[in-house]
Specification:
This protein is of the alpha/beta class and 259 residues long. The protein has two domains: 6-174, Alpha-Beta Complex (Spore Coat Polysaccharide Biosynthesis Protein SpsA, Chain A), CATH 3.90.550.10; 177-257, no CATH class. 40% of the residues lie in helices and 24% in strands. It has helices at residues 19-26, 45-51, 64-74, 91-102, 178-198, 207-222, 229-257; strands at residues 6-12, 32-38, 55-59, 79-82, 87-89, 110-115, 117-121, 124-125, 136-141, 145-147, 157-159, 162-165, 170-175. Strands 3-2-1-4-9-6-12 form a seven-stranded mixed β-sheet, sandwiched between helices. It is globular and about 60 Å long.
Length: 259
């Protein structure tokens, strides 16, 4: 049996709403699709994946980088495309991946490719604030990539060689409603606070003013969040607020661990 060239890997938990369209977009280009399903998942994600012919592995959640390493171990392709359930392969990216598959066995020293993303917030594609081009290192030569399991959020693959950049985009349906946005950012804030605590950082009074001010300036001014009008203003102000939440979480962790 011919060895797969390109595997698609998806991490999922309770994603029945999104994962079908994700599988539809990736199935025409992938030689196999591997889904690492969080064993806490309670909806019909597993049934949808099986209906599309995906190989399913139900695993206890440890961390996002650990789940990605499990995916690398279970995929068979020389290359692995990591795609989230709320992302889609665009026609332009499909064509580019097809060309790469034809030359996939050439060892040119490139072990990974970053892919730009279009991010949709509340149905609106944002251009500024750091959300575009939002390159993600997602196409990896499987034998030469791994994830640092100490990086709990916003994990990035470690490569044995160099990386390149593709021109085709992923479409990321980032946020569809306010509750989802608030829950996701609160989760990130707590995870980042835990990382800061492990690094020995402490919350100080100045963090509650300086950190949100810097974040708003960075996203709204330096990264052009103003280009997205009221959407951009709302998103940048919200991300600034969650800097306050992050340091609030860090302060609570400090107090709970101090004898």
């Amino acid at each position: 049996m011919k060895r797969p060239v390109l595997s698609a890997a998806i991490l999922a938990r309770d994603e029945e709403h999104h994962i079908g369209e994700c599988l539809e977009s990736v199935a025409p280009i992938a030689d196999e699709v591997v889904v690492i399903l969080d064993n806490r998942s309670r909806d019909r994600t597993a049934e949808v994946c099986r209906a599309y012919g995906a190989t399913l592995h139900r695993l206890a959640f440890q961390s996002y980088p650990a789940q990605r390493n499990h995916a690398l171990e279970r995929c068979q392709g020389e290359w692995v495309l990591f795609i989230d359930a709320d992302e889609r392969v665009t026609p332009e990216l499909y064509k580019e991946l097809l060309c790469l598959k034809h030359s996939a066995h050439n060892d040119d020293g490139i072990d990974g490719y970053a892919i730009p993303r279009h991010n949709l917030f509340f149905g609106h594609t944002v251009r500024g604030g750091g959300w575009y081009p939002d390159h993600q290192l997602r196409l990896l030569r499987r034998a030469r990539a791994r994830y640092d399991e100490r990086q709990f959020v916003h994990e990035v693959a470690l490569l044995d060689g160099a990386s390149g950049t593709l021109a085709g985009h992923l479409l990321h349906i980032n946020i569809e409603h306010m509750g989802e946005f608030w829950h996701k950012q609160a989760s990130y804030a707590l995870a980042e606070a835990r990382i800061l605590h492990q690094e020995g950082r402490r919350a100080r009074a100045r963090n509650f003013v300086g950190a949100p001010a810097r974040e708003f300036w960075r996203r709204y001014v330096r990264l052009g969040g103003w280009r997205d009008g009221l959407y951009g203003l709302f998103l940048c102000l919200s991300l600034a607020w969650f800097e306050v939440v992050k340091y609030g979480c860090l302060l609570l962790i400090q107090r709970s661990t101090t004898p």
